[in-house]
Every structure is written in C-alpha cells, then in structure tokens.
C-alpha cells in the first residue's frame, strides 16, 4: 500500500518554499512530484521596464549566493549585442570575483551538507572559514553579498597592490583548511557512511535528464562551460574539470572540494598574471536590435540568459534559466527508491536555490485543468471571492486534538 | 587512507582553547573596509541637477523636484527605505556630489524616518564643463 505525503511548501527541512509531493511504500519513496511557484517575484517583467544599467542590479538580486554569476551572464550577453570587447584587466577582475564567489558558495554548501548529515561542528567550521572569503569580497567590491562589480563595458573597481597581497595571504589559510576538510570528508567514517550510496544518479540518467554543475560532474561527466565554451579569459587560465565517479551525494561533496582547489589555483593565477590597463570601456546606452544567449558556469551549474533587444535603452525580453531548474528532473530520479530520512540530504545536494528558478506562475482551474490569463485586478477579485466562499468552512473548523 | 573514528576530536579539542570567532555586536563592532557602500549622501554644493542619478537608480530611490524654476531651487529626496546600496548614483555623478559613506546601521522604526531631503540652489557650471557633460550624454 502506498501513501502520498506532502512535504512543503512550508517544512523545516526546506530552506525555501517548494512543494514535494511524495508517494511512499513503507519508508521507501516510490514517486516524487515537485511543484514550484510559491516564491514567484515577477523579475522577468521587471527587467522589461528598466534600462540595461539598472538591470545589472536587478539581475544581481535574482540570487543572493550566485549574484555575480547572474550579472556577469547578463553583462556578457549585452556586450555581445553591442559588439564590443572589454579590457583584459576587466575580464580578469570579473573572473577573480567569480572564482571567489565559487569558493564562498562551495564552502557554504559544505556547511549545509554537514548540517543535513547531522555534523553540526563541520557546518560551524566551514562557515567560519567562509568569512575569510566574504571579507575579501567586501574589501574588494564594497559589499558582502551583492558585489555590484560589473558594469556594461568592464568593472567598477580595480584591485590594488594591498588587496592583491591580502587575497594571496588569505588563500594560504583557505587552502590549509580545505585540505583538512578533504581529509575529513574521506576519513571520518560516520560522515562518509551518511553520504555514500544515497541519491544515486547514473551517468546515462544524468545526461538524459540534462542535469548541470556539480550534480552532473559527480556522475563522471566532465562538462563545464568554462572549458567547453570559454567566456571572459577562461581559455588562458589553466585548470581542470573536477569529476567523481561515485554518482552519489559523497561524489557531489568530493567534486565541490576538488573545485575549491581548482578555484584557489585560478585565483592565484589571476592575481599573479593580472594585466595592466583600463578597467572599463566606454559604451553607448542604446543597444542595437538583436538577440543573444549567454552562458556562465555558476557555482551551482550552467546559467543561461537570453536577451532580446529592440534598439532602445531597455531590453524587450530577458529570460533567465537558473541552474536549479535544470536539476529538478534529476532530483526526482535521485529521490526515487530512497528513504524518507534522505530527502533533505538529496535535495540539499543539488544546492537548490528555489527563488532563482521561479520564473512564471500559471493560473489554472483545478476542476477543468485549463490555464487562464488574468489581469491583476481580476486575480484580486478572484481571490476575494474565493475566500468569501471558504470563510464559513475556515471559521467552523475544529482543531482535531 | 584508512578510515579512522574520531578524526574530528583533536580539532574540537584545539577549539576549546581558542578565542571566539564572533564579536559581541552591539558592544563591539567590526571595522568597515575602505570603499564600503553605505548610506548615500549628497553634497549640495557640487550638485548640478543633471538628474543622471535619478535616471539610473535601479530602485527609484532618488527623486528630484523643482521648487522654484527662476531661482534654480531644487529638492532631492533620497528614499533610503528603497535604496539597495549599489552605488550607481555615485558612479554616474559627473561632479562627485553623490557619495556613499561608511554607515551601515540604518534601521529605523518607521520608513518615513529614512527619507532624506536636501533643498538647495543649483550651482552654475563653467562653460568648459558643459561641453564635457554633453559628450557624456551620448556615451555612458
């Protein structure tokens, strides 16, 4: 006999609202259904009403963790439409902030993995070490979370000599700490036993379900936009694509730790080979008509922005495909035949950012199943009528205990 | 590498004797780094009312009103309740009249306390400056 239990939209295991409708047979998950739309913010409509310069800061607010990824993806696309080449120093600084962001995101994820696996002290230590990166980012960009370093045609702030030496000194501490976590992740038997063998995603399935980022690389597929379709100056920087062949949550942890080391090497390379010159090119406010697709390897996976311009100061359309959305089909496959107790860990292993992936809401009649287009006033009227009819039931509800 | 139970214990033991990683915030404050983007402040003596900040502000937090056209009197309202501290106003300002200071404790019991108003007379520009500004209009 199978039973269906809703997990979410509000649930202590989830950090953001999302509905997981689970069908269980005993303690084993037989089917999972993911429902989105609880965190819709209407950002894509907002982009259409703002100029390209304003949109840099709006795209930054799609996500709080990969904020630089979204702006770089957007700005790279706009520069492609404008047909300009940014100064070399600017693209190196963009890469530097991007890699620092990857370090902070992966350290954050390691902490979350420790927290979900019941290893609270691991969570505390990784988050303490993450503060080193956050301090570097605050010092070089002016803010801890929304760095706002990008502008169309380059970057807004330069890296000076004192910052350069400070980052290089901090990297030594970070490398030492990450090396410790690497040993811990492969040696501590209780931690390894909790992570290995759960959330299995075989290689073929990872490919056919179009998963991205560390989830894909943990299934032994070396796909990375930085290597496959280099943007900025990634073709000049030596680095390797990190993979793991265990196809489980332990593999995803290993991939992220390996990527941390790659990021440290990239940061060191950038700082030692930072070219001199301007940091910003002059660009026109109006963008010529056309459309483009921009790809970026965010810490969570491939990030895609589609930009359509109509020759004015404002974009006609800006479509965002955040990496979490691409990982949802794979999550359903990973959850199947797993245990109830593993749901938070499997779900956390894709590093979900739910509000990043919320791009549209469809108003659907549950009885007929038909979708409708409604204006905001109509929707307000509908909700008022709906609650008027349901008031009586709510009022008379008796608390079951 | 062999699996070892209690790999974490030496680390935990060392941390018993370490100083706390956090600070007692209201009594002890962390140093704000140079170049921090805090509260936007207008230097009314330098403002030429080009309205570039009003145009580029992504949060529509800057509002410039004309009080008296003949006397060139203007009023700028900075809605700090809407401000996202991106610093685009300071970047786009041709005379560096707008700057972001180091202040980060900006919470207020009411959002109406967070609206800063500056009433001022527009400063005259030199002819040479004007030429540069017109060029800037075309290029960002």
Characterise this structure:
The complex is a heterodimer of chains A (401) and B (140). Chain A is α+β, with helices and mostly antiparallel strands. Chain A contains 15 helices and ten strands. In chain A, strand 4 and strand 5 (154-155) form a beta hairpin. The longest helix of chain A is centred in the N-terminal third of the chain and has 29 residues, at 88-116. Chain B has four helices and five strands; from the N terminus they run H-E-H-E-E-H-E-E-H. In chain B, the strands form two sheets. In chain B, strands 2-3-5 form a three-stranded antiparallel β-sheet, with no helix packed on it. The mean pLDDT of chain B is 83. With 140 residues, chain B is of the alpha+beta class. At the A-B interface, helix 2, helix 5, helix 6 and helix 7 of A face loops of B.
CATH class value of chain A = Mainly Alpha
User: For the residues shown, what is the average pLDDT of chain A?
Assistant: 89
Number of spatially distinct domains of chain A: 1
Structural class of chain A: alpha+beta
Shape of chain B: elongated
Count the E strands of chain B. Answer: 5
Q: How is the CATH topology of the domain at 43-130 in chain B named?
A: Alpha-Beta Plaits
N to C succession of SSEs of chain B? HEHEEHEEH
**CATH architectural category of chain A:** Orthogonal Bundle
Q: Rg of chain B to the nearest angstrom?
A: 24 Å
| Widest sheet: strand ordering of chain A | 1-2-3
Number of DSSP strand runs of chain A: 10
User: Termini of chain B, distance in Å?
Assistant: 58 Å
DSSP strand content of chain A: 5-15%
CATH superfamily of chain A: Cytochrome-c3 Hydrogenase, chain B
Enumerate the spans of chain A where pLDDT stays under 50 for 5 or more consecutive residues: none
The strand order across the widest sheet of chain B is: 2-3-5
